[in-house]
Specification:
- With about 290 residues, this protein is α/β, with parallel strands linked by helices.
- The protein has two domains: about 180 residues, 3-Layer(aba) Sandwich (Rossmann fold); about 80 residues, Orthogonal Bundle (N-(1-d-carboxylethyl)-l-norvaline Dehydrogenase, domain 2).
- Helix content is about 50%, strand content about 15%.
- Strands 3-2-1-4-5-6-7-8 form an eight-stranded mixed sheet, sandwiched between helices.
- Helix 6 links the parallel strand 5 and strand 6.
- Helix 5 packs parallel to helix 6 and helix 11 crosses helix 12.
- The longest helix is centred in the N-terminal third of the chain and has 20 residues.
- The structure holds nicotinamide-adenine-dinucleotide (NAD).
- Nicotinamide-adenine-dinucleotide binds next to helix 1, helix 5 and strand 6.
- Pfam families: 3HCDH, 3HCDH_N.
Protein backbone atom coordinates (compact mmCIF):
# COMPACT_ATOMS: atom_id res chain seq x y z
CA UNK A 1 0.00 0.00 0.00
CA UNK A 2 1.26 3.53 -0.69
CA UNK A 3 1.89 5.56 2.46
CA UNK A 4 -0.59 8.27 3.49
CA UNK A 5 0.58 11.40 1.64
CA UNK A 6 0.73 13.40 4.87
CA UNK A 7 3.20 11.10 6.60
CA UNK A 8 6.92 10.86 6.04
CA UNK A 9 8.24 10.90 9.59
CA UNK A 10 7.07 8.43 12.25
CA UNK A 11 8.06 8.93 15.88
CA UNK A 12 7.81 5.98 18.26
CA UNK A 13 7.89 6.67 22.01
CA UNK A 14 9.37 3.80 24.03
CA UNK A 15 12.04 1.39 22.82
CA UNK A 16 10.78 -1.69 24.65
CA UNK A 17 9.48 -4.96 23.25
CA UNK A 18 6.76 -3.23 21.23
CA UNK A 19 8.20 0.18 20.40
CA UNK A 20 11.45 -1.16 18.96
CA UNK A 21 9.67 -3.54 16.56
CA UNK A 22 7.05 -0.94 15.62
CA UNK A 23 9.93 1.38 14.70
CA UNK A 24 11.68 -1.24 12.60
CA UNK A 25 8.39 -2.05 10.84
CA UNK A 26 7.96 1.63 9.97
CA UNK A 27 11.56 1.97 8.77
CA UNK A 28 11.25 -1.17 6.63
CA UNK A 29 8.10 0.34 5.08
CA UNK A 30 10.08 3.42 4.03
CA UNK A 31 9.32 5.94 6.77
CA UNK A 32 11.95 8.13 8.35
CA UNK A 33 11.60 6.81 11.87
CA UNK A 34 12.79 7.98 15.26
CA UNK A 35 12.53 5.98 18.46
CA UNK A 36 12.59 8.03 21.65
CA UNK A 37 13.05 6.57 25.13
CA UNK A 38 14.00 8.05 28.50
CA UNK A 39 16.54 5.26 28.98
CA UNK A 40 19.77 5.45 26.92
CA UNK A 41 20.57 1.80 27.71
CA UNK A 42 17.15 0.72 26.47
CA UNK A 43 17.85 2.55 23.21
CA UNK A 44 21.26 0.87 22.88
CA UNK A 45 19.68 -2.55 23.51
CA UNK A 46 16.91 -1.86 21.00
CA UNK A 47 19.41 -0.78 18.33
CA UNK A 48 21.48 -3.95 18.86
CA UNK A 49 18.41 -6.22 18.88
CA UNK A 50 16.97 -4.69 15.73
CA UNK A 51 20.29 -5.12 13.96
CA UNK A 52 20.36 -8.79 15.07
CA UNK A 53 16.81 -9.26 13.86
CA UNK A 54 17.43 -7.91 10.38
CA UNK A 55 20.71 -9.88 10.14
CA UNK A 56 18.70 -13.05 10.81
CA UNK A 57 16.04 -12.06 8.29
CA UNK A 58 18.72 -11.42 5.67
CA UNK A 59 20.46 -14.73 6.42
CA UNK A 60 17.23 -16.68 6.08
CA UNK A 61 16.42 -14.96 2.78
CA UNK A 62 13.33 -13.15 4.09
CA UNK A 63 14.85 -9.70 3.61
CA UNK A 64 17.27 -8.30 1.03
CA UNK A 65 20.51 -7.00 2.58
CA UNK A 66 20.11 -3.67 0.80
CA UNK A 67 16.55 -3.22 2.04
CA UNK A 68 17.74 -3.88 5.60
CA UNK A 69 20.56 -1.35 5.27
CA UNK A 70 18.20 1.31 3.94
CA UNK A 71 15.80 0.67 6.83
CA UNK A 72 18.62 1.09 9.36
CA UNK A 73 19.67 4.31 7.62
CA UNK A 74 16.13 5.64 8.16
CA UNK A 75 16.10 4.71 11.84
CA UNK A 76 17.30 7.13 14.54
CA UNK A 77 17.38 6.78 18.34
CA UNK A 78 17.03 9.62 20.81
CA UNK A 79 16.40 10.44 24.46
CA UNK A 80 15.46 14.03 23.60
CA UNK A 81 11.72 14.36 22.97
CA UNK A 82 11.95 18.17 22.65
CA UNK A 83 14.37 17.75 19.75
CA UNK A 84 12.60 14.97 17.83
CA UNK A 85 8.87 15.63 18.27
CA UNK A 86 8.70 18.77 16.04
CA UNK A 87 9.56 16.66 12.96
CA UNK A 88 6.90 13.99 13.54
CA UNK A 89 3.89 13.53 11.25
CA UNK A 90 2.62 10.54 13.19
CA UNK A 91 3.49 9.49 16.75
CA UNK A 92 3.00 5.97 18.13
CA UNK A 93 3.37 5.93 21.90
CA UNK A 94 4.53 2.54 23.23
CA UNK A 95 5.90 3.56 26.62
CA UNK A 96 5.40 1.78 29.94
CA UNK A 97 1.78 0.92 30.71
CA UNK A 98 1.12 3.63 33.32
CA UNK A 99 -1.62 6.18 32.85
CA UNK A 100 0.33 9.03 34.45
CA UNK A 101 3.34 8.33 32.23
CA UNK A 102 1.19 8.32 29.11
CA UNK A 103 -0.72 11.47 30.09
CA UNK A 104 2.54 13.33 30.61
CA UNK A 105 3.85 12.12 27.23
CA UNK A 106 0.65 13.19 25.43
CA UNK A 107 0.74 16.60 27.11
CA UNK A 108 4.31 17.14 25.90
CA UNK A 109 3.51 15.82 22.43
CA UNK A 110 0.56 18.20 22.24
CA UNK A 111 2.94 21.10 22.75
CA UNK A 112 5.86 19.80 20.67
CA UNK A 113 4.49 17.93 17.65
CA UNK A 114 3.29 19.85 14.58
CA UNK A 115 -0.47 20.63 14.62
CA UNK A 116 -1.24 18.11 11.86
CA UNK A 117 0.47 15.21 13.67
CA UNK A 118 -1.66 12.30 14.80
CA UNK A 119 -0.88 10.97 18.28
CA UNK A 120 -1.68 7.28 18.74
CA UNK A 121 -1.16 5.02 21.72
CA UNK A 122 -0.28 1.33 21.45
CA UNK A 123 -1.72 0.67 24.90
CA UNK A 124 -3.55 -2.63 25.44
CA UNK A 125 -5.62 -1.44 28.38
CA UNK A 126 -5.69 2.37 28.35
CA UNK A 127 -8.20 3.81 25.89
CA UNK A 128 -6.97 6.94 24.13
CA UNK A 129 -9.84 8.95 25.68
CA UNK A 130 -7.79 8.85 28.90
CA UNK A 131 -4.92 10.79 27.31
CA UNK A 132 -6.71 12.74 24.55
CA UNK A 133 -7.53 15.85 26.60
CA UNK A 134 -3.96 16.15 27.88
CA UNK A 135 -2.74 16.45 24.27
CA UNK A 136 -4.91 19.49 23.56
CA UNK A 137 -5.88 17.90 20.19
CA UNK A 138 -8.30 15.11 21.07
CA UNK A 139 -9.55 14.75 17.49
CA UNK A 140 -6.03 13.66 16.44
CA UNK A 141 -5.79 10.92 19.09
CA UNK A 142 -6.66 7.19 18.90
CA UNK A 143 -5.35 3.77 19.89
CA UNK A 144 -3.20 1.97 17.35
CA UNK A 145 -2.83 -1.43 18.98
CA UNK A 146 -0.16 -3.72 17.55
CA UNK A 147 0.36 -7.36 18.53
CA UNK A 148 3.48 -9.07 19.78
CA UNK A 149 5.73 -9.86 17.89
CA UNK A 150 5.01 -6.80 15.78
CA UNK A 151 7.14 -7.89 12.83
CA UNK A 152 5.07 -11.06 12.48
CA UNK A 153 1.52 -10.29 13.60
CA UNK A 154 -0.70 -8.71 10.98
CA UNK A 155 -3.55 -7.34 13.04
CA UNK A 156 -3.60 -3.72 14.21
CA UNK A 157 -6.65 -2.58 16.17
CA UNK A 158 -7.45 1.06 15.44
CA UNK A 159 -9.71 2.20 18.24
CA UNK A 160 -11.51 5.52 18.10
CA UNK A 161 -12.70 7.39 21.18
CA UNK A 162 -15.85 9.50 21.02
CA UNK A 163 -13.90 12.57 19.83
CA UNK A 164 -11.51 10.95 17.33
CA UNK A 165 -11.98 12.57 13.92
CA UNK A 166 -12.85 10.57 10.81
CA UNK A 167 -9.68 11.82 9.17
CA UNK A 168 -7.55 10.53 12.03
CA UNK A 169 -9.19 7.12 11.74
CA UNK A 170 -8.69 6.99 7.96
CA UNK A 171 -5.05 8.10 8.12
CA UNK A 172 -4.27 5.61 10.89
CA UNK A 173 -5.86 2.74 8.97
CA UNK A 174 -3.97 3.81 5.86
CA UNK A 175 -0.69 4.01 7.77
CA UNK A 176 -1.22 0.50 9.18
CA UNK A 177 -1.89 -0.88 5.69
CA UNK A 178 1.24 0.81 4.39
CA UNK A 179 3.18 -1.05 7.12
CA UNK A 180 1.92 -4.31 5.62
CA UNK A 181 -0.62 -4.82 8.41
CA UNK A 182 -4.29 -5.76 8.29
CA UNK A 183 -5.96 -3.11 10.46
CA UNK A 184 -9.42 -3.46 11.95
CA UNK A 185 -11.55 -0.57 13.17
CA UNK A 186 -13.05 -0.61 16.64
CA UNK A 187 -15.82 1.93 16.90
CA UNK A 188 -15.76 2.50 20.63
CA UNK A 189 -13.52 1.81 23.58
CA UNK A 190 -14.29 -1.41 25.42
CA UNK A 191 -11.82 -3.03 27.84
CA UNK A 192 -9.64 -5.48 25.92
CA UNK A 193 -10.81 -4.12 22.54
CA UNK A 194 -11.67 -7.13 20.33
CA UNK A 195 -8.68 -9.48 20.19
CA UNK A 196 -8.01 -9.60 23.93
CA UNK A 197 -11.74 -10.01 24.63
CA UNK A 198 -11.91 -13.00 22.28
CA UNK A 199 -8.76 -14.44 23.83
CA UNK A 200 -10.12 -13.74 27.31
CA UNK A 201 -13.38 -15.53 26.58
CA UNK A 202 -11.55 -18.65 25.39
CA UNK A 203 -9.20 -18.50 28.39
CA UNK A 204 -12.05 -18.07 30.83
CA UNK A 205 -13.86 -21.10 29.42
CA UNK A 206 -10.67 -23.17 29.43
CA UNK A 207 -10.01 -22.29 33.08
CA UNK A 208 -13.60 -23.18 34.04
CA UNK A 209 -13.37 -26.52 32.21
CA UNK A 210 -10.12 -27.33 33.99
CA UNK A 211 -11.42 -26.24 37.41
CA UNK A 212 -14.55 -28.33 36.88
CA UNK A 213 -12.46 -31.40 36.13
CA UNK A 214 -14.03 -31.72 32.68
CA UNK A 215 -10.69 -32.32 30.96
CA UNK A 216 -6.96 -31.97 31.60
CA UNK A 217 -5.19 -28.82 30.44
CA UNK A 218 -3.29 -30.92 27.89
CA UNK A 219 -6.55 -32.20 26.43
CA UNK A 220 -8.17 -28.75 26.46
CA UNK A 221 -5.13 -27.39 24.57
CA UNK A 222 -5.23 -30.34 22.17
CA UNK A 223 -8.94 -29.75 21.47
CA UNK A 224 -8.35 -26.08 20.65
CA UNK A 225 -5.65 -27.09 18.19
CA UNK A 226 -7.16 -30.16 16.55
CA UNK A 227 -10.87 -29.23 16.57
CA UNK A 228 -10.71 -25.44 16.22
CA UNK A 229 -7.39 -25.14 14.42
CA UNK A 230 -6.04 -22.65 16.93
CA UNK A 231 -2.26 -22.62 16.50
CA UNK A 232 -1.89 -22.92 20.29
CA UNK A 233 -4.05 -24.09 23.15
CA UNK A 234 -5.30 -21.51 25.68
CA UNK A 235 -2.93 -22.72 28.43
CA UNK A 236 0.04 -22.69 26.07
CA UNK A 237 -0.94 -19.19 24.96
CA UNK A 238 -1.22 -17.92 28.55
CA UNK A 239 2.30 -19.24 29.19
CA UNK A 240 3.57 -17.48 26.08
CA UNK A 241 1.92 -14.14 26.87
CA UNK A 242 3.06 -14.34 30.51
CA UNK A 243 0.75 -15.16 33.39
CA UNK A 244 1.56 -11.83 35.05
CA UNK A 245 0.35 -10.06 31.89
CA UNK A 246 -2.78 -12.25 31.74
CA UNK A 247 -3.48 -11.42 35.40
CA UNK A 248 -2.78 -7.71 34.86
CA UNK A 249 -5.16 -7.52 31.89
CA UNK A 250 -7.87 -9.28 33.94
CA UNK A 251 -7.35 -6.84 36.82
CA UNK A 252 -7.55 -3.83 34.49
CA UNK A 253 -10.71 -5.20 32.83
CA UNK A 254 -12.31 -5.92 36.20
CA UNK A 255 -11.42 -2.45 37.47
CA UNK A 256 -13.06 -0.93 34.39
CA UNK A 257 -16.24 -3.04 34.33
CA UNK A 258 -16.77 -4.07 37.96
CA UNK A 259 -18.46 -7.17 36.53
CA UNK A 260 -17.84 -10.20 38.78
CA UNK A 261 -17.64 -12.30 35.60
CA UNK A 262 -14.46 -10.33 34.74
CA UNK A 263 -12.79 -10.97 38.13
CA UNK A 264 -9.17 -12.23 37.77
CA UNK A 265 -8.85 -16.01 37.87
CA UNK A 266 -7.57 -17.38 41.19
CA UNK A 267 -5.51 -20.19 39.69
CA UNK A 268 -3.68 -17.73 37.44
CA UNK A 269 -3.09 -15.37 40.38
CA UNK A 270 -1.73 -18.30 42.47
CA UNK A 271 0.79 -19.19 39.74
CA UNK A 272 1.91 -15.54 39.54
CA UNK A 273 2.36 -15.40 43.33
CA UNK A 274 4.48 -18.56 43.12
CA UNK A 275 6.70 -16.85 40.53
CA UNK A 276 5.44 -19.11 37.76
CA UNK A 277 4.97 -16.58 34.98
CA UNK A 278 5.02 -18.91 31.98
CA UNK A 279 7.76 -19.43 29.42
CA UNK A 280 9.78 -16.42 30.51
CA UNK A 281 10.27 -17.79 34.06
CA UNK A 282 10.76 -21.42 33.02
CA UNK A 283 7.36 -22.61 34.23
CA UNK A 284 3.72 -21.65 34.33
CA UNK A 285 0.94 -24.03 33.40
CA UNK A 286 3.68 -26.12 31.81
CA UNK A 287 7.37 -26.55 32.67
CA UNK A 288 9.99 -25.40 30.19
CA UNK A 289 13.55 -26.58 30.35
CA UNK A 290 15.82 -23.62 29.81
N1 LIG B 1 4.13 -6.49 25.40
C1 LIG B 1 3.05 -6.77 24.67
O1 LIG B 1 2.78 -7.95 24.34
C2 LIG B 1 2.14 -5.66 24.23
C3 LIG B 1 1.22 -5.91 23.20
C4 LIG B 1 0.41 -4.85 22.73
C5 LIG B 1 0.51 -3.61 23.32
N2 LIG B 1 1.39 -3.41 24.34
C6 LIG B 1 1.48 -2.04 24.89
O2 LIG B 1 2.67 -1.42 24.42
C7 LIG B 1 3.18 -0.53 25.41
C8 LIG B 1 4.63 -0.87 25.68
O3 LIG B 1 4.71 -2.20 26.08
P1 LIG B 1 6.12 -2.99 26.06
O4 LIG B 1 5.79 -4.40 26.35
O5 LIG B 1 6.90 -2.61 24.84
O6 LIG B 1 6.82 -2.32 27.35
P2 LIG B 1 8.34 -2.34 27.78
O7 LIG B 1 8.36 -2.30 29.24
O8 LIG B 1 9.10 -3.43 27.07
O9 LIG B 1 8.91 -0.94 27.20
C9 LIG B 1 8.45 0.30 27.64
C10 LIG B 1 9.53 1.33 27.34
O10 LIG B 1 9.00 2.63 27.64
C11 LIG B 1 10.07 3.42 28.13
N3 LIG B 1 9.52 4.59 28.82
C12 LIG B 1 8.99 4.68 30.06
N4 LIG B 1 8.61 5.95 30.32
C13 LIG B 1 8.88 6.67 29.21
C14 LIG B 1 8.72 8.05 28.85
N5 LIG B 1 8.18 8.94 29.69
N6 LIG B 1 9.13 8.43 27.62
C15 LIG B 1 9.68 7.55 26.75
N7 LIG B 1 9.88 6.24 27.04
C16 LIG B 1 9.47 5.81 28.24
C17 LIG B 1 10.84 2.46 29.02
O11 LIG B 1 12.16 2.94 29.25
C18 LIG B 1 10.80 1.18 28.19
O12 LIG B 1 11.92 1.09 27.34
C19 LIG B 1 2.25 -0.65 26.60
O13 LIG B 1 1.32 0.41 26.55
C20 LIG B 1 1.54 -1.98 26.40
O14 LIG B 1 0.22 -1.99 26.91
C21 LIG B 1 2.22 -4.39 24.79
Amino acid sequence: MPPPTTITHVLVIGAGAMGSQIALTAALAGYTTTVQDVSPSQLDDAAAQLRERTDKMVKSGRLAAEHAERAHDRLAFSTDLDAVAPAADFVIEAATERLETKKAIFARLGRLAPPHAILATNSSTIGSSAVAAASGRPGHVCNMHFFNPVLVMECVEVVRHAGTSGETVETTLELARSLGKAPVLINREVPGFVANRLMGAVQKEALALLAGGVASMEDIDATAKTALRHPMGPFELMDLVGLDVVDYIAQATYAATGDPADAPDESVAALVTAGKLGRKSGSGWYSYSR
